[in-house]
Amino acid sequence: MLLLLLVFYACTKKNAANQTTTSSDDSLTSYMSKANDFSATTKKRQDYIQKAFGIIINQPNDSLQRANLFRVANRYYNLNDWAGYHKIAIIVLENAKTSNDTVSTAKAYSYLGDYYGSQGVSDSAFMYYFKAEKIYLQRNDNLNLAKARLNKAQLQYNESDFSGSEISIFKALRVIKGEKANDIVYELYNLLGLVYNELGEFDKAIEFHNKALASINDETTPVEFQSKATSLNNMGLVYQNLNQYKKAIPYFQKGLEQKKDLILYKPPLYAMLLDNLGYSRYKLKDPNGLPKLLFQSLELRDSLQLTIGVIISKIHLSEYFASKNDTIKALQYSKEALKTAKTSKNNRNALLALKQLAIIEPKKASIYNKEYIHINDSLQKAERKIGDKFTRIEYETDEIKQENTDLTTQNRNLVYIFGSILILGMFLYIIKAQKAKTRELLYKQEQQKVNEEIYNLMISQQGNVETIRIKEKKRVAQELHDGVLGRMFGVRMNLDSLNKIHDESASYQRNSYLTELKNIEQDIREISHDLNREKSELINNFVAIVDNLFEDQKKTFKSKLVSNIDSNIKWESMSNANKINLYRIIQESLQNINKYANADSINVEFKKEIDNLLLQISDDGVGFNVNRAKKGIGLQNMLSRINECNGTFEIKSKKGEGTIITVTVPI
Questions:
Q1: Domain C-terminal end among 354, 382, 410
Q2: What 3-state class would DSSP assign to 39?
Q3: Residue 57 is part of a domain; what is its CATH number?
Q4: Between helices 365-478 and 122-139, what is the axis angle to 10°?
Q5: Is the separation of the CB atoms in 133 and 145 below 8 Å?
Q6: Between β-strands 601-608 and 560-565, what pairing exists: parallel, antiparallel or unpaired?
Q7: Do 370 and 484 share a domain, yes or no?
Q8: 194 lies in a domain?
């Protein structure tokens, strides 16, 4: 009778929340109210639930939204819409975890336990109930802790773990003691009565069913709970199991007195009372209302798709028709019950069908009995396993929790260790970086000195060359002035003396020579003066050094090089450091062009702007990707030199369009 009893115990905890939760939104309140109107059709109630959900889901993730979502889930529960119920529970759980709301997290765990329990996934259901229990235990929330333990006890009862269910019930009763929670106390007493009924301890079953009835407050208990009718039915079942059918019938009859409310709020309970009343009368051989009561129950159960109830009704009808010697109908209902039980994998009720078939068909009794024994053994093993499984889940969950605590401690210690190492590493890095910066600064200072020395050497070398050139020029000038001009002057004097001869042709010729000699004398004097007038600024001349670089480029490479240096640039106003950096930039640029550009022509130009010196180097080569090139060492060196000059650097290039480098340095 276990599965028959399961239906009598309907968990009504969700409806209580619906009586107290309110909303400031008129539409939401209206939808919620209409969704809970038991007189409306299922389709209409589902539509109202969807409308309410559409409003709530757009609310911010706060306690009000989560409370409203739970209300939506309760309405899905009342409709037995488990898919909708599960969807809402998952949403609330995610929102609650995001907000660190442990109360809503625990409640969502309970709802998920309900869902998996309804789907027959008992281990998952037990795990979620146990998670909820642990949270409530940590929060010292005795009321919700008792509810969580009640949920566990109900699940254990459904899985025939009666001893485990009994323990969970008494744990719940201990924590609920002193609390104003008649509804929970009622459910605990009622479930305990069912447990003792299954264990065959009928006196205790009657005791706790009476306690359950005594805990009902007609003024505060919602009519849709139908708690009194449920307890009356369960009490009648105890007497039925005691074969005291005369005592059982008044309980069933009294339970059916609320027929109108039962049909509206608890049709499965109404079908159950009809079947139990009819079956008790059958056992007493009282034909009153038979087989009508049994058929009414079957029809209602079939319309509600209550698989277990349909199996029980058909077995009772089979027994009834067998007693009337209508073997055909008796076999029909027994076989239908067995088929339904096997299809729905309800092996416990399959035992009842096999037992009935063995009685109706004695010739096949051995076959039925063999199958009965096989299924019964499997059920006993499964029941032992499920009890062990629940214990193991509790143990493993606690163990995981302890492991998580240990892991948290380990992680905290690791954070401290790694944090200390990180701080020490950063400290060492800062020291090392500072030392590196100091070395870099010293290196730059040394490099600056070296650059100065290199430039001075280049200037000195150029000065030596220029000194030799000037010396040579002076020697040539002296030779021209003292030697050639002296002799030319002598010739002119001689010719001048010949001019005294008045021969007409001779005189004309001599005058020609004299004129020519005067011209030669003037030309030589000008050359002499020009050679002697070499400007002293050639010494330390940066332009000459750059020109030498250009001459080397022209001699060595095939590219045509055109250079232009603005004569208005006052090089003496620029520091040697800046000059050497500009020289190196030109040198590096020419080297890159020679290596990679494959250019036909190169143009280098120095221009004077208001306060700046502009250097532009361009070529008509293959070009390159500027973004990639910025990582090159040569380009980085050029940028570094520009920074030392407090100047700016710009490079423009595209593949196939050549390259333009522009450097601007303040004068």
A1: 382
A2: coil
A3: 1.25.40.10
A4: 70
A5: yes
A6: parallel
A7: no
A8: no
User: What are the structure tokens assigned to 631, written together?
Assistant: 């990582």
Give dist(CA 476, CA 67) in Å, integer: 112
Give long-range contacts, CB 8 A cutoff, 24+ apart: 21-26. Answer: 21/67, 21/68, 21/70, 21/71, 23/68, 25/55
Integer Cα distance of 314 and 291 in angstroms: 12
Q: In terms of DSSP bridges, do strands 601-608 and 612-619 run parallel, antiparallel, or are they unpaired?
A: antiparallel
DSSP annotation of 618 reads E
User: What domain range is 579 assigned to?
Assistant: 541-666
Question: Does one domain contain both 657 and 577?
Answer: yes
The CA distance from 617 to 597, in Å, is 13
Cis peptide before 291 (omega within 30 of 0): yes
- d(Cα 578, Cα 580) in Å, to the nearest integer? 6
586: its two tokens: 């030109």
What is the C-alpha separation between 330 and 315, in angstroms, rounded?
8
Sheet holding 601-608, edge to edge: 560-565, 601-608, 612-619, 659-666, 648-653
3-state DSSP of 490-540: HHHHHHHHHCCCCCHHHHHHHHHHHHHHHHHHHHHHHHHHHHHCCCHHHCC
Contact 585, 641 (CB under 8 A): yes
CATH number of the domain encompassing residue 547: 3.30.565.10
Q: Tell me which of 365, 382, 399 is where a domain ends.
A: 382
Task: Report strand pairing: 659-666 vs 612-619.
Answer: antiparallel
Q: How far is CA 237 from CA 248, 527, 541, in A?
A: 7, 143, 122
Residue 656 phi/psi, 5-degree rounding, is 85, 0
- What are the pLDDT digits (tens) for 593-603? 888 888 899 99
pTM comes to: 0.51
Confidence of residue 359 (pLDDT cuts 50, 70, 90): confident
Q: What is the CA radius of gyration of the chain?
A: 55
Please state, in angstroms and rounded to a whole number, the distance separating the CA atoms of residues 196 and 5.
Answer: 12
30-64 per-position pLDDT tens digit: 888 888 887 888 889 989 989 989 899 888 999 89
Q: Domain count for the chain, please give it.
A: 4
Collapse the DSSP code of 274 into the 3-class scheme (helix H, G, I; strand E, B; otherwise coil) and give the result: helix
pLDDT value, residue 13: 41
DSSP codes joined into one string, 306-329:
-HHHHHHHHHHHHHHHHHTT-HHH
Residues 6+ apart with CB under 8 A from 162: 156, 195, 198, 199
Determine the Cα–Cα distance for residues 598 and 596; give it in Å rounded to an integer. 6
User: Same domain for 639 and 651?
Assistant: yes
209 by Cβ neighbours in 10 Å (0-12 / 13-18 / 19+) ranks as buried
Which of helix, strand or coil describes residue 371? helix
pLDDT of residue 124: 86
Asked if 550 and 503 count as a contact pair (C-beta separation under 8 A), the reply is no
Separation between Cα atoms, residue 144 and residue 140, nearest integer Å = 9
Is the pLDDT assigned to residue 154 strictly greater than 90?
no
Strand partners for 613: 608, 665
Query: Does one domain contain both 647 and 661?
Result: yes
Helix (H, G, I), strand (E, B) or coil at 561: strand
Strands 648-653 and 601-608: unpaired
For the chain, what is the mean pLDDT? 80
- Separation between Cα atoms, residue 520 and residue 517, nearest integer Å: 5
φ, ψ for residue 630 (rounded to 5)? -65, -15
- The label of the residue with tokens 């030799």 reads 468
Residue 539, judged by CB atoms within 10 A of its CB (0-12, 13-18, 19+), counts as: middle
